[in-house]
Amino acid sequence: MSEKLKVGILGGTGMVGQRFISLLENHPWFEVAAIAASPRSAGKTYEEAVGGRWKMDTPMPEAVKNLIVLNVNDVEHVASQVDFVFSAVDMTKDEIKKIEEAYAKTETPVVSNNSAHRWTPDVPMMVPEINPEHMAVIEAQKKRLGTKRGFVAVKPNCSIQSYAPVLTAWKEFEPYEVVATTYQAISGAGKTFADWPEMVGNIIPYIGGEEEKSEKEPLRLWGKVEDGVIVPAQSPVITCQCIRVPVLNGHTAAVFVKFKKKPTKEELIDRLVHFSGEPQRLELPSAPKQFIQYLEEDNRPQIALDVNYENGMGISVGRLREDTVYDWKFVGLSHNTVRGAAGGAVLCAELLKAQGYITKK
Questions:
Q1: Which of 112, 162, 197, 235 is most buried when burial is the number of CB atoms within 10 A of its CB?
Q2: Which CATH number do you get for residue 48?
Q3: In a domain? residue 135
Q4: Same domain for 184 and 320?
């Protein structure tokens, strides 16, 4: 009998679900024991359900090919097979909220890639290096749900990973005004170039709902836990534009920052390369050894060279220079479907396990 925790993937046939499955292959702590998807996929083997829609650049793991896909709506049945679940379901926000809480009420922890619960006051939204203390709200959430071990935790939007960790590393210098433009890969929409040929050689200056998330979600990461809820921070003020660009994986951000305290370039770089958190201290399996790297070359970071830094779990920063209107500007890069989606959720689950929130049933 394996000592690994049994994990279910809700929405396992979509792109983020596939990324979960590829990242969990040979994971030292977790094993995929159940895959759930829409009723039209239920009853098929995973290989049949995905068909020709496998979008990862590594082969489908042998261990999941013959798993029979379960109906995601059969909550009790799916929950009975696993210790916890990752959620990547494709539903409306209200449907996602309802189904994730339904799984939590079966005493099954839910670690979600979806946005539905990011503003539920007692649901922690975590980048594990930034705000592990937000796990404290889980106790209040369990009281609300009437559970002993079931809860929902979420990770933030993929677009903020390329600059929110950087601003966190610079907190002591009190950034108070930020302008960011993100150049976002098509995999963020669950697409490849085969699915979305009109993106080849094209830019679309609109991604629905993305700019509000990019401006507001960092403030929740930097918020404080008070009376069983997370109260978002008030600053820095962030304004953002989000643009879809013809790149498969990797979100790039061009960012301008004003500080109350005036740092030197050397101080800013020092804080970046030495920034670490609980995942590094605990040596969690998916944690990057160095969370943020600084690249001195004028033409870096580049997606072709840097998107897979630390297996896609690290952040790359470059072009840090003084600005004529703002104090400093830089370019950040993160892997949107690894650190920004499934990998970030896996790291959250590892931290939750390490802290005793996720255990064997």
A1: 162
A2: 3.40.50.720
A3: yes
A4: yes
Q: From the candidates 117, 240, 242, 251, which is the catalytic residue?
A: 251
SS (H, E, C) the chain: CCCCEEEEEECCCCHHHHHHHHHHCCCCCEEEEEEEECCCCCCCEHHHHHCCCCCCCCCCCHHHHCCECEECCCHHHHHHCCCEEEECCCCCHHHHHHHHHHHHHCCCCEEECCCCCCCCCCCCECCCCCCHHHHHHHHHHHHHHCCCCCCEEECCCHHHHHCHHHHHHCHHHCEEEEEEEEEECHHHHCCCCCCCHHHCCCCECCCCCHHHHHHHHHHHHCCEEECCEEECCCCCEEEEEEEECCCCCCEEEEEEEEECCCCCHHHHHHHHHCCCCHHHHCCCCCCCCCCEEEECCCCCCCHHHHCCHHHHCCEEEEEEEECCCCCEEEEEEECCCHHHHHHHHHHHHHHHHHCCCCCCC
Q: Is there a single domain that holds both residue 56 and residue 179?
A: no
Which residues form the domain of 103?
5-157+342-354
Average pLDDT, the chain: 97
Segments of the chain with pLDDT less than 70: 1-2
Catalytic member of 117, 134, 158, 348: 158
pLDDT the model gives residue 2: 64
- What pLDDT does residue 1 have? 42
Asked about 158 being catalytic, the answer comes back as yes
